[in-house]
């Protein structure tokens, strides 16, 4: 029996997309939720307690999106800087709402100890469409470089530039979902004219460390804290998670800067990409958000005691 996956419905197998294929893909994207009511409204409710700023603006056709960041109100130049980013991939919901939950529920625990800078929803167009890419079929999380093709990424880099070399910690909050395998990886293969190679979605939470500057004890401290909220992903039969060797329990490594990933945008000695698994029957959306918030707390706690 032929078990090969069906070809992606856009484009010609083996041929990268051109303008027509990108336009066809864009025509299929529909708005499914509201950035204004689900994200901006929450940020507005935080305004009495924090400094809120617009750091950029996206204009896509008739739609426009303000890019918003949240800062500690009593910013002090003598304190270490903690950067938290979420929603680089707009469909990864707990990255957005976990970042906001951390600000609302836990930031006060660190007042006077760190300067906090949070960009909770880096890709609002994709947030509304529950998608990985921006409307140009570009992945912002492969675009954090000086000639970035994604305005979402370029705007965040401009925001972060003044604190890039002062940051102690960067927590970049993500999810790995079942739709990575059913939609987003097949779309990527089709876009680039490459064959789709099926993989296995890890069941549980894991972290991505920087292979060029690994901090295994820091990663394990985050894993141990998150385990109080949700389960940790095991390795597959090859000892891997998504094709990368599991170097420690729940941890893999990528060359962050080489790949243009968000977690590479500062010189912070402590950095990680969280990966929540929201499709497990063992978790709720609330647990997913809590896992992200707890991960940030664990990261700050470890960084402050090991700086």
TrEMBL record:
Keyword Cell membrane among UniProt keywords: no
Superkingdom, natural source: Bacteria
Keywords: Hydrolase, Metal-binding, Zinc
GO molecular function: hydrolase activity, acting on ester bonds; metallocarboxypeptidase activity; zinc ion binding
Limits of the Peptidase M14 domain: 31-307
Protein name, per record: Succinylglutamate desuccinylase / Aspartoacylase family protein
Pfam family, one: AstE_AspA_cat
InterPro entries recorded: AstE_AspA_cat, Peptidase_M14
Named cofactor requirement(s): Zn(2+)
Gene Ontology BP term (one): proteolysis
Presence of the UniProt keyword Lipoprotein in the record: no
Organism of origin: Marinobacter antarcticus
Sequence similarity: Belongs to the peptidase M14 family.
């Amino acid at each position: 029996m032929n078990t090969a996956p069906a070809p992606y419905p856009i484009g010609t197998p083996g041929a990268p997309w051109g303008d027509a294929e990108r336009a066809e893909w864009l025509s299929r994207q529909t708005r499914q939720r509201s950035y204004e009511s689900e994200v901006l409204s929450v940020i507005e409710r935080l305004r009495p307690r924090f400094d809120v700023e617009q750091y950029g603006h996206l204009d896509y056709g008739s739609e426009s999106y303000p890019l918003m960041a949240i800062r500690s109100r009593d910013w002090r130049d003598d304190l270490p800087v903690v950067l938290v980013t979420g929603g680089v991939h707009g469909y990864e919901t707990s990255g957005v709402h976990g970042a906001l939950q951390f600000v609302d529920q836990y930031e006060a625990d660190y007042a006077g100890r760190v300067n906090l800078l949070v960009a909770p929803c880096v890709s609002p167009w994709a947030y509304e469409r529950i998608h990985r890419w921006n409307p140009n079929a570009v992945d912002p999380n492969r675009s954090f470089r000086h000639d970035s093709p994604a305005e979402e990424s370029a705007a965040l880099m401009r925001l972060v530039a003044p604190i890039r070399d002062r940051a102690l910690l960067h927590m970049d909050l993500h999810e790995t979902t079942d739709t990575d395998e059913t939609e987003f990886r097949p779309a990527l293969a089709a876009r680039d004219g490459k064959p789709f190679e099926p993989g296995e979605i890890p069941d549980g939470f894991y972290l991505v460390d920087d292979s060029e500057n690994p901090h295994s004890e820091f990663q394990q401290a985050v894993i141990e804290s998150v385990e109080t909220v949700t389960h940790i992903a095991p390795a597959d039969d090859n000892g891997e998670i998504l094709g990368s060797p599991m170097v420690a329990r729940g941890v893999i490594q990528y060359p962050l800067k080489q790949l243009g990933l968000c977690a590479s945008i500062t010189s912070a000695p402590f950095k990680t990409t969280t990966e929540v698994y929201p499709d497990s029957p063992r978790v709720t959306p609330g647990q997913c958000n809590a896992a992200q918030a707890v991960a940030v707390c664990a990261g700050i706690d470890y960084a402050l005691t090991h700086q």
